[in-house]
């Protein structure tokens, strides 16, 4: 395996009437231009024509990420396409092993097969690969990183220009990122012993084609036509159904087990009990998650709010009087994960349980933003 062993650290070492859609606490990305600098890294975006690939470019630009040169890579079907970016037109290049010659940072979102084939090749050539697929997430030699949660997991990795060598860093699954952004600050304070998660996942998690099919189906159903069902093989518009990943022998689907296993790895804690039910809902690009927590130590809801107000990348939307709480629409195209419906679990004694509702943009913090934040830690 072309990955680097890493040291795992325990998480208990702390490193008015407005709709949520326009909530003032939710941060849109900055509009600062991307920095073209001679001392910046050479950056490659793999799968640039996909939904996450396009979001990579937007996030890189909005966060003023420094770069010396930029390579846009995709399949042979997309090679030759012209993409405008920061006042310049780039030609998409066909993805090949030699594409990574001279590359310092490679942002991958082209599927697990491509990552398995070309990720190690890119790392062997000296690139730091930040991979958005599931290909390497459970590899014990590959850090699985949410920068606000466990940045120390990748502290040994450096760019080759800074006495480093190639490596692979895995981006967690979108539902895991959104969940742990809100839960980890509470876990550090009171130690979660059991977590029950129900997810309500958007079309974007299945790619740009799924998003387009949801739009198409919505028009068709409203016009009284039979919906076009190519991506999910069933009607998605105005519907809710079990996540489309494969169901395993234990009855859980792959998406649910990702949340279980990835939580254990990111928290460096295999003892915490995690169970999940993952559903597809007819929203476009942001997930909602209902989360029930059981703690080893007491934690009242007001203390939980105080903790979450200080948590980076988290905003609280929790107005009971106005019935104003996070929504997938409200967090779409936003950087922050929103937490609300914060309340004591009345089925548990001694303030040892909380219920939360968390929403986050699946393409942004659930994928592209998290990956770019990982790349920022390398600078």
Features:
single chain, 379 residues, alpha/beta, seven-stranded mixed sheet, six-stranded parallel sheet, globular, disordered N terminus
Structure description:
α3 crosses α8 (364-377). The chain has helices at residues 51-62, 112-124, 174-190, 208-222, 254-267, 301-309, 328-331, 364-377; strands at 35-36, 42-46, 66-67, 69-74, 82-85, 88-91, 93-94, 105-108, 128-131, 167-170, 192-201, 240-242, 273-281, 286-295, 314-316, 337-344, 353-361. Helix content is 26%, strand content 23%. A hairpin with a 2-residue loop joins β5 and β6 (88-91). It is built from 8 helices and 17 strands. The strands form 4 sheets. It has a 7-stranded mixed beta sheet. Strands 7-4-2-8-9-10 form a 6-stranded parallel beta sheet, with helices on both faces. 46% of the residues are buried. With 379 residues, the chain is of the alpha/beta class. Residues 1-22 and 29-34 have low confidence and may be disordered.
- Which segments are poorly predicted (pLDDT under 50) over 5 or more consecutive residues? 1-22, 29-34
How many DSSP H or I helices? 8
- What is the radius of gyration? 21 Å
**Overall geometry:** globular
Strand order of the largest sheet: 12-13-11-14-17-16-15
**Helicity range of the residues?**
25-40%
Structural class: alpha/beta
The run of helices and strands is: EEHEEEEEEHEEHEHEHEEHEHEEH
Task: Let me know the number of strands.
Answer: 17
In percent terms, what proportion of residues is strand? 15-25%
Biggest pleated sheet:
7 strands, mixed
Q: Give the termini distance in whole angstroms.
A: 25 Å
Mean of pLDDT: 91
